[in-house]
Amino acid sequence: MNKDRVAVFVDWANARILIEKEIKNASATLQNLHFSYNDIDKLTYLFASFIVPEEERLFRIYLYDAEAMSSSELYNYAEKAVGTELFSRLKSEWEKATGNSYPSSRSERQDMIHTRAQEFHRKIMRHNLYALRLGEQRCRIDNAAKGEVSFFQKQVDMLLGIDIAHVSLLKQVEKVMVFSTDTDIAPALNIARLNGIQTIVSHLNKSFHPDMRIQKHCDFVRSLDFIDIYNDGESNGWDFRKISRTEQEFD
C-alpha cells in the first residue's frame, strides 16, 4: 500500500508560543515534565503525532523562523533611524543593569536570545527530515528615550507560501499540513487544493477551530492534547517511528 506523503509546514514564531503555553499548562498536571523544543527529537515527535502512520508518511518538516537581531545590529539600525542624541539615550537604557545576574540588561538579554536562536537553527539544519527557512528580524523604535523597541519578522509568510506552492505544483506530496493560525497562509492553502493536494491544519488544542479564512481552504482540522502527546512520547522513547495513530483520534 502506497502511503500519502505529508509535507509539514511550521510557522515557528506562531507554533513556539503555542508550545510554550501548553508546556506551562501541562506542568500543573504532570510532575517532572521535561519537554524542550531545543530537543529536536521531541519536537519532531510532536509534529509527527498529527500523521496517521497506516495511511501517511512524513515527507519533510519545513520550519520558518527569523534569526533574532543582536544588540549591535539593533544599535546600527537605531543610530541611523533616530539620530545621535536619541540613540545615545536608547543605548544608555539598553545597557542599564537591572539586576546582579546574567542577563542584567536589555542588551545582554537580546544577545542571549540571538545566540540561542543561532544554536536552535544549527540543530534544526543538522537534523534529519528538516528544511530550515529563515526570514529576517526587523525592529521598530517606539520610544528611543525609554529604550522601547518592537521586533517583528519579515519574509517568513512569503517563504512559507512559496514552498507550499512549490511542493503542490510539482506534486511532490499528496498532503500539506500547516502549524499556524496566521490567516496569511490561506492563499497558499488555496493553491495546494487547486492542484489536487489535500490540506490539513493542526493544533495543540482539542477545542481549536480555524479562522474562516483558513477553514474554507482546509480539508482536515487535526487537534491533539499536548499531555497525550507527551505521555505517548515518553512511552515510545520519543521515536516518531513508533507512533500509532488513527484518523478517529482527531475527532
Structure explained in plain terms:
This protein is of the alpha/beta class and 251 residues long. The protein is built from nine helices and seven strands; from the N terminus they run βααβαααββαβαβαβα. The chain has helices spanning 12-27, 40-48, 71-82, 84-94, 106-126, 156-169, 186-194, 212-215, 226-235, and strands at 4-11, 56-67, 130-143, 148-154, 175-179, 198-203, 220-223. A seven-stranded mixed beta sheet has the order 4-3-2-1-5-6-7, sandwiched between helices. α3 runs antiparallel to α4. The chain is globular. The two termini are 25 Å apart.
The N- to C-terminal Cα distance equals 25 Å
**Largest beta-sheet characterization:** 7 strands, mixed
CATH architecture title of the largest domain: 3-Layer(aba) Sandwich
Rough outline = globular
Described by its quaternary structure, the protein is single chain
Number of helices: 9
Number of strands: 7
Mean pLDDT, as a whole number? 93
Q: How do the strands of the widest beta sheet line up side by side? A: 4-3-2-1-5-6-7
From the 3D structure, determine the CATH topology of the largest domain: Rossmann fold
Question: Uncertain runs with pLDDT below 50, 5 residues or more?
Answer: none
**Can you write the helix and strand succession as a string?**
EHHEHHHEEHEHEHEH
* Rg, Cα atoms, Å: 20 Å
Overall tally of structural domains: 2
What is the helix content? 40-55%
Structural class given helices, strands, pairing?
Answer: alpha/beta
